[in-house]
Every structure is written in C-alpha cells, then in structure tokens.
Amino acid sequence: MYGFYRIATSVPKVQIANPSKNVENIIEILEEENKNESSIVLFPELCITGYTAGDLFLNQNLLDSQNKALKKLLQKSEKYSLIAIVGIVVSFEHRLFNCAAVIQRGKILGIVPKSYLPNKNEFYEKRYFQSGIRIKSKTLKLLNQEIPFGVDLLFSDENDITFGIEICEDLWSILPPSNQMAINGANMIFNLSASNELVGKSSYRQELVKTQSARLVCAYIYSSCGVGESSSDTIFGGDALICEYGSILAKTERFSLDNQTIRADIDLEKVIWLRNHESYFGDSIPTEVRVIKIASAIKISKLNRYINKHPFVPYDEKVKKEVCEEITNIQAHGLIKRLTHINSKKVVIGISGGLDSTLALLATYKAYEILNYDFKGIIAITMPGFGTTSRTKSNAIKLCETLGVTIKEIPISDISLKEFEALGHDKNIHDVTYENVQARARTSILMNLANKEGAIVIGTGDLSEIALGWCTYNGDHMSMYSLNSGIPKTLISYLVEYFTYKNEIKEILIDILNTPISPELLPHDSDKISQETESIIGPYELHDFFLYHFLRYGAKPSKILFLADEAFKEYSKNEIKKWLDIFIKRFFTQQFKRNAMPDGVKVGTISLSPRADWRMPSDASFEEWLELP
Ligand SMILES: Nc1ncnc2c1ncn2[C@@H]1O[C@H](COP(=O)(O)OP(=O)(O)OC[C@H]2O[C@@H]([n+]3cccc(C(=O)O)c3)[C@H](O)[C@@H]2O)[C@@H](O)[C@H]1O
Ligand SMILES: Nc1ncnc2c1ncn2[C@@H]1O[C@H](COP(=O)(O)OP(=O)(O)OP(=O)(O)O)[C@@H](O)[C@H]1O
Ligand SMILES: NC(=O)CC[C@H](N)C(=O)O
C-alpha cells in the first residue's frame, strides 16, 4: 500500500536457558503478528537460549535444546510468509557465534553473525563466542538445511524491501556493519540486542538508533531483551523501538513484566526516494554482497500510522519558543547581512493588517533590535485601496504605532483609477486587471519611496503563496529582499501567534490572526472582506500538506491524496481531490513567477528558490500529475 510495510519488534518474556519455553512464547507472538498483518517480526539477541546463560553456553545440552526448539519454530512458521528474526548460537568450524537467523516458511534463509563482541565490565562475550567480522561467502549446515552464513548477507523481496542485520554492540562500534549494508542497498536494518539498563543509558540508546536511521536514510528496527533476562547484577528493561529517517515511530514501555510487541507502518517508498536525492549516497562505494530472496511481504489492508496534518508546524508545544526564536533569528540575520552590506539603516514595508506583512514587520523589528538601529528607520506604509477594510487598516496602524516605527498612509485608489483610464479599463469590471493594477501600484510606491529614502523594500510573500503563484507578477511578487519566502502560511500563523507573548501587541495580533486571509483587492459592502483567499484557492492547511509531501518526499499525487484523506477527517476525499488538482495546476503554471523571485531567506528544508532548492522549467506540463484515483 503506497510503499508502506508493517514491521514489528517484540520483547518476549524469556526464561534463561529454557529454549523450549522461549520458542513456545515466540510462536504465540508470531501467530498474533500474522493476524496483525506484520511482514517481519524482530526478537532480541539470543532470545531462544537467553542472553545471560553465561557458562551454560559452554555446555552441549543448551545448544542441543536450542536447535530442537528452533526446529519446532521452523515447523510452525511453514504456514505464514511472515518473517521472524531470532537470536541463536551457532557452532561453525568448531567455534561458537552469536547470530541472527532469518526464518520464513519453514526455512532459515540466512544467518548473520555478530561482528563486535563486548568484553568489558558487565559483558563477557569473548569467553564464549568468536567475532564473525571476517565471515563472508560461507554456508553452514543446520537442521539439515544448507544456510548462507556471513556478514555479507542482505535479504530482499521483489518489491521495496531490502534489509540487513546487526547485533547489539555492532551499532555502538566505530564502524557499525549497518553503514556498509545501507550503502549496499539495505533500506531496513534490524538489530537484535541485549542492552542492560543503567541510569541515562536508555536515552543514549534511543538517540543512537534514531540517529543511525537518519544517517543511513533507512528504517532501523531495534529489540533489546526484557526483564526476564535480568540476572545477578545486570538488569534488562526491554527497550524496543522502530525508527524511520530520524523519527521514532513506535517504542515500548520499558520494564514490562509481560511480552511486549510494537509495530509500525514504515514508508519504504519515501526512504528509497530520499536516498535517490542524498548526494552522499551516490558517493558511497558498494561492496560485494549476497542477496537472499524472501517471499513478498504481506499487504496491509488499512494504514495504521499517525499522519501529521500540519507538517510544517512543531507539534510539541514545549519547543514553540525555541523554534519561533530560531526562525525569526534566521530571518533577522538575512536582513542584517543585506542592510550592513549596503550600508543602509532604512527599509520600506507595505503593512496591510494581514498575517504576512505582520510577520515581516516583526522579523524586521528584531533585526533592528539586534543592530541597535533606530526603529524609525523602518518605514511602514499603509496603502488603502478599493478592498481595504477598516479592520485591517486600523490593525496595521495600531501595530506600527505600538512598535514605534515610522508610519505613512498613501492611498492607491486615485492612482489606480488614473491607470484604468490610461489603460482604457472599465473600473466596474473587477477582473484580474482591476486587481493587479492595485497590487502593482503598491509595489511601485514602495520601490519609489525606497529610492527616495535610500532604503530597500522588504518582501512579505510566504512560501505557500509562492508555491501557488498567489501573488501579482511584479506586484507583491517583487521586492529587494524577501523575509517570508521560506515560511509556509500554517507556520506564519504559528509565528504570529507566538508573538502574542508581547503584551503590548497581543490584542492586535489576536485580531490579525482572526481576520480572514484576503488580498483585499475587490470592493466590499459594509466594510466586510469580500474576497476570502481560502474559499477561492482552497484551505492553506491542505496546500501546505500537499507542498510538504510533494517536495520533501517527492510523493506522487495519488499518495498525497491518500495521506491527506488519512490525516484530515474534516474534508471529504472529493474536496481534497479538488484542491489538490488546483495545487498541481497552479504549482506548474506559476513557476515563471518563482524563476524571477528576489533573494529571500531559506528557513526550513523546503524552499522554492530557483537559485537553490527548486529548479523547474516554467514550461513543464502537469497532465501526468493529474491522474488521481
Ligand atoms: N508561463 C508563463 N510565463 C511568462 N508569463 C506568463 C506565464 N503564464 C502567464 N504569464 C503572464 O503572467 C500573467 C499572470 O500573472 P499575473 O499578472 O501575476 O496575474 P495572475 O496570476 O493571473 O493574478 C494574480 C492573482 O494573485 C492574487 N493575488 C494578488 C496579490 C496578492 C495576493 C495575496 O493574497 O497575497 C493574491 C490575485 O487575486 C490574482 O488572482 C498573465 O496574464 C501572463 O501575462
Ligand atoms: N492595504 C495595504 N497597505 C499596505 N500594503 C499592502 C496593503 N495590501 C497589501 N499590501 C502589501 O502587499 C502584500 C501582499 O498582500 P496580501 O494581502 O497578500 O498580504 P498580507 O495581507 O500581508 O498577508 P495575508 O496574505 O496573509 O493576508 C502585503 O504583505 C503588503 O506588503
Ligand atoms: N549485547 C551487547 O552487545 C551489549 C553491548 C552494548 N554496548 C549495550 O549495552 O547495549
């Protein structure tokens, strides 16, 4: 389903040195996961014998009973295509190895040995095991099966899945084997662990797994043994987690007395696309591997994954201050560089009482604060036209007065009427000419005033407007330096809301936030906004969602539609489709505006600057993007 695969990781209740009991339990978990439509289930290191069996590893009986139990597991697994990855001890060329076995449909498809054996403090693995770091291109015989054995194994189905395996300490080493596995094509890494609990260790471990999934651009699935393994001085908590490209999708509650299995729907299509676009991947050199074929993964019937409606907005309220300060700092420092470079202490900015110009003003104000410049150097212009309402105008004036910047009023109605006359345009025809004459009149005033004052014009257009081309070419589209061009509308609102912490402007900002978004270019009755942007081009929250998945993950429109339908219960699929259609058409046809964009600050991973992130021909066709189910 759109490149999603359900993967599980389990922390079973383990009885030390009791393989038959442990396998019984593993079989129950597999039954359950088969019903849950999981494709692969990971278990911890040495989960059949128990990791802490100590010198019992040196007794023949433990190995025999492990293999007997393993045989039972193989028999039971015959009926499903679900894969189990379990930890076993293997005897090869008269040496013992700590290994992972990959089991599917009654067969062991491959066995991967551990490379790095911890042998310090509470760990004593070299007393029993040998490192498998040099084992490549080997096969071993176990339970009458000839099984590929080595650290050179990857497992792949005919679709998106290719996985590799490492074992506990491998990840903590200088060169985790998963690095090369990823370079060789593994997009999922499984780690079977026995990692004990020490104060602070769990957060380090989670950080390690998360970071590895980000660096390797993969899914990283981890399972460490639970409390049943605790013995003498060493306590295990059962930390298991599933990460994808730096995010934790699921994790266990540690110290459970019961079996714990978690699962997540991993987006491998996204991971694969991200790799195609990661230049360091291209520069990394693959090595020889043996790729073992696995039967196709189970198809999931319904996605079970949280899809964030507002991907540009942080969902953790605790980070709000930090994120907002960071963004406005980046904006302010872009402007600081430009002002100090041209040796000017003046800017001109059109203030409408809308969200965009409000944020641009606040970011400019911050730059002036940092530079210790006189705030009067910020020349704010209100330019009422045919559609301006007293609400937006008075908010604009109050905001500027409270901040103590210079404020001027230059109406544009007469100028626009003169231009209609010169053009031979009937002022009663409220078409695109009627709208754009006003938008361009404003820009002309701002630019000319900048010349007069020795200032630059601050651009206010945001990333969502730039994506949709919702601006007037060479009107509000143009400026000398653009402050919001890297910030989508959903984030603009979030930032303006953040600034309500400043008591003196709180009430004004709240009213700006509650004003419908509008270009105010069309005349109104009784001082009420007549042109609501979102009822014309669609809700910005949807457009930002489309933009994010389209650019960040290169998602196809059909997948964007599917994800939006999952995320937004408040819109019908048909509504989403209608707005997605508009998004695609506008995104393609409006590239000519982006190709002539002024310099502007990049603040997030997504930008549409033609000099940096997005280089698309203005003449590309969109038809191939419109085939929505
Ligand atoms: N591929 C291409 N390459 C080069 N030029 C191309 C072109 N496609 C059209 N054009 C030309 O560009 C013109 C279309 O662009 P443009 O003149 O900008 O006009 P257009 O995009 O049609 O109109 C601007 C729209 O933006 C809205 N707006 C304006 C200002 C502020 C806001 C806001 O809410 O923030 C919204 C306004 O309501 C209106 O719907 C065409 O008439 C044609 O001359
Ligand atoms: N009445 C006005 N007075 C001064 N400048 C204006 C006026 N209307 C528009 N502008 C300028 O044109 C820009 C684009 O107008 P638009 O209405 O899209 O922006 P906004 O009102 O700031 O934000 P939003 O689009 O979020 O409502 C504004 O940011 C502002 O710089
Ligand atoms: N089993 C292991 O390899 C444990 C070693 C590892 N550093 C840990 O504590 O997680």
What's the structural blueprint in terms of helices and strands?
Layout: E1 4-11, H1 19-35, E2 40-42, H2 60-77, E3 83-92, E4 95-104, E5 107-113, E6 138-142, E7 145-149, E8 153-156, E9 162-167, H3 169-172, H4 177-183, E10 188-193, H5 201-215, E11 219-224, E12 240-244, E13 247-251, E14 260-267, H6 268-276, H7 279-283, E15 290-293, H8 320-342, E16 347-350, H9 355-371, E17 378-382, H10 390-403, E18 406-409, H11 413-423, H12 432-453, E19 456-459, H13 463-468, E20 481-482, H14 489-498, H15 503-514, H16 533-537, H17 540-552, H18 557-567, H19 573-589, H20 591-594
Parallel strand pairs: 1-2, 2-3, 8-15, 9-10, 10-11, 16-17, 16-19, 17-18, 19-20
Antiparallel strand pairs: 1-14, 3-4, 4-5, 6-7, 8-9, 11-12, 12-13
Helix pairs in contact: 1-2, 8-9, 9-14, 10-15, 11-12, 17-18, 17-19, 18-19
The protein binds nicotinic acid adenine dinucleotide, adenosine-5'-triphosphate and glutamine.
Walk me through what this model shows.
The chain is an alpha/beta fold and 629 residues long. It folds into 2 domains: 4-293, 4-Layer Sandwich (Nitrilase/N-carbamoyl-D-aminoacid amidohydrolase), CATH 3.60.110; 317-537 and 593-608, Rossmann fold (3-Layer(aba) Sandwich), CATH 3.40.50.620. 38% of the residues lie in helices and 18% in strands. The chain contains 20 helices and 20 strands. The strands form 4 sheets. A 7-stranded mixed sheet has the order 13-12-11-10-9-8-15. α17 (540-552) packs across α18. Bound molecules: nicotinic acid adenine dinucleotide, adenosine-5'-triphosphate and glutamine (GLN). One of its GO terms (cellular component) is cytoplasm. Deamido-NAD(+) binds at residues 436, 465, 470-473, 593. It is an enzyme of class 6 (ligase). It catalyses: deamido-NAD(+) + L-glutamine + ATP + H2O = L-glutamate + AMP + diphosphate + NAD(+) + H(+).
